[in-house]
Amino acid sequence: MEVLEAELWQLVDHRLDEVRRLPYEELLRRAGDDPEIERLERPSGTFRRRTRVVTWPNDRLGITVRVDADGRRRPAEGGIVITSSGALAPEWSRSGEPPRGNPFAVGPRATLAGLALCAVLLLIFFLLA
Q1: Quick one: average pLDDT of 39-59?
Q2: Which of 30, 24, 29 is nearest to 83 (CA)?
């Protein structure tokens, strides 16, 4: 990873954290507006940052940030979904926050049913082969 690319991702992460901490009413207001576009002057060059807030069902808000370096590099884009309290939605997690549960974790009953199905399919396969 080059320095410029790392700076792009740093700008994305910083902006996501900044917008996420705004009050819910302010985020709802921003969801109705056009995306915010900023030009940032840094020693490494000029960057364009676009921040968009969208509303989702169940009191969820999506925040998307896209940063590009005036076409010199592929843009960096990141997004999160938060609840009305500002916490990450349970279906999302990021580094430094508790991971969500394993969607493939099933109980013993489902495991036994899956093993029985596999045994039946293997038996059919070997009988027809």
Answers
A1: 88
A2: 24
